[in-house]
Each structure stands twice: as C-alpha cells, then as structure tokens.
Amino acid sequence: MCGICGVVGHRTASPLIFEALRRLEYRGYDSAGIATLDHGRIDRRRAPGKLDHLQAVLEAQPLAGTTGIGHTRWATHGEPNEQNAHPHAVGQVAVVHNGIIENYESLRDELVAEGRVFSSETDTEVVAQLIDLMMSRGASPQEAARESLQRLQGAYALAIIFARHDGLIIGARHGAPLAVGYGEGEMFLGSDSIALAPLAQKITYLDDGDWVVLTPRSVQIFDEAGQKVKRPAQPMALIAGAVGKDGYRHYMEKELHEHPVVIGQTLQRVIDPVSKAVALPEFGFSLVEVPRVTMTACGSAYYAALVGRYWLEAEARVPVDIDVASELRYRAPPLTPGGMGLLISQSGETADTLAALRLLRRSDQRIVSILNVETSTMGRDSDVTLGMVAGPEISVASTKAFTAQLSVLAALTIAMGQARGTIDASRAQQMVSTLFDLPSRAAEVFQRVADIQKMAVIVAEARDVLYLGRGVCFPIALEGALKLKEISYIHAEAYAAGEMKHGPISLIDKDVPIVVIAPSTILFDKTLSNIQEAKARGGRILAFTDEKGAARLSGIAEQMVVLPEVDAFVAPILFTIPVQILAYEVALLKGTDVDQPRNLAKSVTVE
Ligand code: F6R
After folding, report:
1. What CATH architecture does domain 3-242 belong to?
2. pLDDT of residue 241
3. In three state form, how does the secondary structure of 253-309 look?
C-alpha cells in the first residue's frame, strides 16, 4: 500500500525510479511522483492517476540528477489529486511516505503556529515541514531527520532528499516495510525486493525503528535509539524476470494459470516427495500440547484460514478460534499461554495481521505464520514460518497465493493430526497422495474455461449475485464473492447454503444468479436441498460440481462447470480455481481494470 523508492548513484535517477515504481504500482495507483536533486536543487514531477500519467509528464519535462525518490500512492489522507501526490517538497526537503502519521493533526497545528504554510491535505507533509523547519534553524539533514522521526507516531516508511545535498538520501522504517539495495557506486531504497531486484545485487531488510543514511558508496544504519547497527545483507533473489506477464493479457490471468505449479511447488516444500512424509520446519514446541489454535488473517487469506479451521478441527481435533485480524486485535480474547497463534498472509506486511500478531505474542502464544514473502516483517516476527512457494503475486486480487496457503494448511493439518494421534499412517498416506494428485487435477480445470465463460455471461448481466457453499466449500463461496466484487464491481454475497432459509432466501428472484460450490462430498445432499429451495423460488442456479454431482444437478442447474472428482479433503483447493476464473471472465466482459481494480491496493500496510 503505497510504494516508495530512492536512488542515489551515478546514473540519471528518474528512469530507474520510474521503472521501480512500475514494479511497485500494485501497491497503489491513485497518483505518482518523482523528485530529484539537480545540481543541489529539488525538482519534481507529479501526476494524479496511474503511472502512465506521470510518464507523459516526465516525457514532456524530464528530470535530471542522480539522486531521487519516487512514490506511487494509495490515498489515505486527501483526495488523489496532484496537490496531494508525493513527493511532498517543502523548502529544502522532499519526502515520500508509505503509512499514516497518526499525530499529524497536532504536529500540523504546532507547525502552523510556527508560521508554516501547508500546501496539501496529507499527513505526510508534516514530515517535510518538520525537517525543513529544523534545517532552517541550522540542523544538518541527519540531525533534522533524526529529531523529526522522534516526533512521529504511527506507521511509516520514508525516503527523504535534501536541497544542496546531492548524493544523500535518508530512509526510515517504522511499521511499514523498507529495504536497502546495494549496487556498484549506487544505493537504493524500496518498499520491497520486487522494486529493487533488477537494480541491486544485495538487499538488507531494515528492522522496525531503523533509519538509514545512503550515499552512492555507503550505507549507515541506525536503530531507534540512534545506535549504529549492522543488518545482514542477502544476495538479491533473481525475481526480476518472474514479474512479466509472459504473454498473458493480465497478471491475474498469468497467476491463475500458475495454480497447478504453485500447488505442486508448495506441496514439495512441506511434504517430502520421496518419503511422502510431512516435512515442516522444527516448531520448537510440541504440537500435541497446543491447547488451542487462534487463527487470523485478512481478506482472501482469512478465507483460507476458515478452510484451515474445518481441517484442523475435524482432522487434528484441535480447538480453533478464528477471526479477521482487524477484529481479533480489539476483541481481547482470553488465551491460554502456550497456544498457537496461526497467521496467514501473502505479503507478510498487512498492518491488521501484524497488529494481531503482536497481540498474540503479548498473550504468550507461539507464533506460526504461513507466508509467501518469508523475509517480510511477519516472517521476522514469527517463531515459525511456513513458506508457500507462490512467487510474486502482482495482480491486486489474490489468486495463486490462496491455493498455496491451503496447501500449507493441509500439510499442517496432517502434521498436527499425526502428532495428536487423530490421523493414522494410512489416513496420512491417503491425504498426501490426494494432495500430490492435485496439480494435475488443477491443470484440468483450464479445459473447462469455455463452460466458465458461459457462466460468466449470465453473471456479468446481474446486479447482485449469491454464492453458496457448505462446510469447507463455504469459504470458497466467500472467496468467489470477494473476487467478483473486487474486479467486476458486481455486488456479491456468500452464504453457508444452510443459512439461506434463515433470511437471505428473500433476495432470490430471476435476476439474482446463484453460484453454488457443490462437489459430491458428504454435504452434497444437504446442499442439493438448499439449491432446490432456491430453484423453487425462481433462482437461476449456476453450479461448480464434479461428474457425480453433475448427474444429480442436471435439469436443476442452468449452467454447470464440471470438475474432476477428488477426495473431499482437497476439494476446496481445486474448486477455488474455477471460482476465481469466473470472476476474471466476468471482469473481462465488464471491461474493468482487472489487475488494478478501483480503490484497492495490495499489501495493506495501514489499519
Ligand atoms: C483479495 C485480496 C485481499 C488480501 C488481504 C490480505 O483478493 O487480495 O483480500 O487477501 O488484503 O493480504 P495478505 O495476504 O498480504 O495479508
């Protein structure tokens, strides 16, 4: 959420920053801007809207200089217009910021009382004003930045440049991610490794509270107390090539097609492909003694957690509490020390989930995180990280990370069940073999795209859509409804099919398509009754089912997508794929911006 970057070196900074912003655009696309130092003078270009607008501005008026900072914005305070676009430049200082300065109102009042005049509605401008005020009183850039940082409350990743100080950038991180990239005679700052990958050879992830002074040939890192510290530098993973669209129309389309590979790679990471034994990292505590698992996450990751709850309770017989992270953290749940706090996050940076992590930590829970970005803040703050192998997910709507999360949760379920004696060797073997069969079943889903497209035509015409599922397929209905809302802007709600008769059934008429997730598992008959109830009231049934289910649904469902029959345990993983493809196909018909839907951004680093 908001992407920032900085370049200090020997090459013209602006094109490097622009390309880094392209790679960060998934984090926000309300406006963008770049500021550079040109012979000691701050020069900047900003534009509302997507980066293409900034590109046009830069083409007309290029920026010179080898030191610069850039920003792509997801608006929090102030409309997404040019005036509120970053970088914010005041006097001798220009600043880009990801996060929220929570005490900006009191700081602003104080600065206004000092005679300072503000030119934006943002919280960020107080940072530029504060630093400039201190410098106007004689402080050096370093002193002014250090003292200003001490005044800030809230979450921030910052990059700052200073007039008359070519070759200097100061960065800071507090609750929002920031990394340093090392080049030859040039240094970089970026919100994530994707931004820095093609630029830098090594990367250092800053710790919370760190601030950093960059010149073309030096990096000095200080901790919150102002002590010089060393942070490990890692070789930059070769991910730059992995972030192209590979000929697909959208990142989302590419990422949907990656489901089979991602499931396969993730399973091989958590289950030994030769011995077929679950091979998770050492937990450092006994899975048998865990009194309760408290699961939390946001959005799609939360729906993955919901599936995990069904599995952990039914198969491993462990009590599970679950809530969205933004609620859990304010619920003050009474937790037994020694319980497991289980977090799920693609990015590992989601502010709500991070805040829940800290609550769980304070309540003496063992923190286990299922993450795609293991070097993220959550990765570093967890006792155990269970990595999924989804690769970079650029489409703002999550797809492949979801099935990767489920793959890890499946392995964790087997491990816990075996440890607790609720899953015996033969059941474990059966579960593992059905999991290893999944990548090829997942690949078969793409042979059904023509049927999904027929369904999409019906959904695209609707104003409201209902999604129904039961048991482990209820979270898949939630995921389908969320994906449809996010990228096609069609209103969709998901219900546990059995709940329909308790209220939502009154919504049904011929204009509200009902998408049902109905594999022929133990709950099929119950789901079928719920479908019949809806059909009897004029509902148009669109069903995702398997061959056995299709025989029972024929004549009832107006449109069906028939998937291969799989073990009930893995059905939610398989059924996710066509449900996400449906949302994609509807968005294509609606002509929306699939990869960057309105109002959204990935990696939600504000609460
Ligand atoms: C939905 C989506 C979001 C994320 C949520 C959590 O398509 O992308 O709902 O799942 O913001 O993000 P992570 O997993 O990064 O914590």
Report:
1. 4-Layer Sandwich (3.60)
2. 45
3. HHHHHCHHHHHHHHHHHHECCCCCCECCCCCCCCCCCCCCEEEEECHHHHHHHHHHH
